[in-house]
Amino acid sequence: MPRRTSIYGFSIPPFLATLAMLLAARGLALVLAKDATVSVNATSDWAGLSQGILFGIPLPVFLLLAYAIGSMSPDPR
Q1: 52, 59 in Cβ contact below 8 A?
Q2: Which domain holds residue 11?
Q3: pTM for the full model?
Q4: So what's the pLDDT on residue 3?
Q5: φ/ψ of residue 56, rounded to 5
Q6: E strand or H helix at 16, and its extent?
Q7: One domain for residues 46 and 18
Q8: Residue 5 CB coordination number (10 Å)
Q9: What was the pLDDT predicted at 14?
Q10: 31 and 65 housed in the same domain
Q11: What is the DSSP letter of 77?
């Protein structure tokens, strides 16, 4: 079985390729933002997913349960 250290024909470990892509993406974002700080509105609708409460229980608990139930699969054996 061949070693999985090849990224498109180069001998670059996948972890280093990931870090290089992160660096390139951050650099591109900095150029596109023209060196300005980009902030996210904390009162947006997305904040409700992490700060919401349903039936007295924090909403992330329900999200975790939904993910756990959805990711269950029958035993293939």
Answers
A1: yes
A2: 1-38
A3: 0.43
A4: 56
A5: 80, 5
A6: helix 14-32
A7: no
A8: 13
A9: 83
A10: no
A11: -
Q: Are residues 58 and 31 in the same domain?
A: no
DSSP string, 25-67: HHHHHHHHTTT------TTSTTHHHHH-EETTEEHHHHHHHHH
11 near 19, Cβ under 8 Å? no
The amino acid occupying position 11 is S
Q: What is the pLDDT of residue 1?
A: 44
Q: Is the pLDDT of residue 4 over 70?
A: no
| Contact predicate 66/57, CB 8 Å | no
22 by DSSP, 3-state: which?
helix
Q: pLDDT digit string (tens) for 7-55? A: 667 778 888 889 999 999 999 999 999 988 877 666 667 777 778 888 9
Looking at the fold, whether 74 and 46 belong to one and the same domain comes out as: yes
Looking at the structure, tell me whether residues 51 and 73 fall in a common domain.
yes
DSSP state of 8: T
Q: 54 has which bridge partners?
A: 57
